[in-house]
Amino acid sequence: ATNLKTIQVAYNQFSSSIPTEVGLLAHLVLIQLTHNQFTSSIPTEIGLATNLKTIQVAYNQFSSSIPTEVGLLAHLVLIQLTHNQFTSSIPTEIGLATNLKIIEVDYNQLSSSIPTEIGLLAQLKLIRVSSNQFTSSMPTEVGLLAQLDFFSFFDTNITGVLPEELCGVKFVFCNEDISDKCCTRTVRNKL
């Protein structure tokens, strides 16, 4: 199993947790466990699977926090954790995964703030953080994301003025109460 490159077990009734041995899979590039009933947390050992490009674990029952070790995944392009029960915050270490193009963490129980380190992800094209419990203002570093095409943060408690640079983003979805602070030519309210 050491040459295993993909794990795809979407749309099953699998439950329990991801085994810590996933970190031993040195050639693993894709893990897709969407639409199952996995629980607990993503093991910290995931950071040892350094060739991972894609993590898709949406529509499960994961809880706990997002492991900081995702920052060790230098080849990571997509992280999709939507529709789970992740708590705490997006780890600041996410800024170390500089090949990330897509971050989808919407429909969880994330709180605190969007980390300023997100501004280090120069290749980021899509961010979905909607339907979480963020409680602070938008970090100005989001304005550094020149490649960003899609940014969704409705149904959050994000406040304040958005960075002017977000005016260049093709699609921005935000709360109705912040829409007057958004660039009106690019913003769409709740879907």
Report what the structure shows.
It is a single chain. The protein is mostly beta strands and 191 residues long. Helix content is 0%, strand content 18%. It contains no helices and 13 strands. A nine-stranded parallel beta sheet has the order 1-3-5-6-7-9-11-12-13, with no helix packed on it.
Task: Output the strand order for the largest sheet.
Answer: 1-3-5-6-7-9-11-12-13
Give me the count of strands: 13
Quaternary status of these chains? single chain
SS summary, helix count: 0
Q: Spans of 5+ residues with little confidence (pLDDT < 50)?
A: 183-191
User: Percent range for helical residues?
Assistant: under 10%
Main sheet properties: 9 strands, parallel
Mean of the pLDDT scores? 88
- What fraction strand? 15-25%
In angstroms, what is the radius of gyration?
A: 16 Å
**H/E element order:** EEEEEEEEEEEEE
SS-derived structural category: mainly beta
The end-to-end span amounts to 43 Å
C-alpha geometry: globular
What is shown here, in short?
The chain has no helices and 13 strands. With 191 residues, the protein is mainly beta.
Write the layout of secondary structure elements.
Layout: E1 6-8, E2 15-16, E3 30-32, E4 37-38, E5 54-56, E6 78-80, E7 102-104, E8 111-112, E9 126-128, E10 133-134, E11 150-152, E12 171-173, E13 187-188
Parallel strand pairs: 1-3, 2-4, 3-5, 5-6, 6-7, 7-9, 8-10, 9-11, 11-12, 12-13
What labels describe this entry?
191 residues, mainly beta, 9-stranded parallel β-sheet, two-stranded parallel ribbon, 0% helix, 18% strand, globular
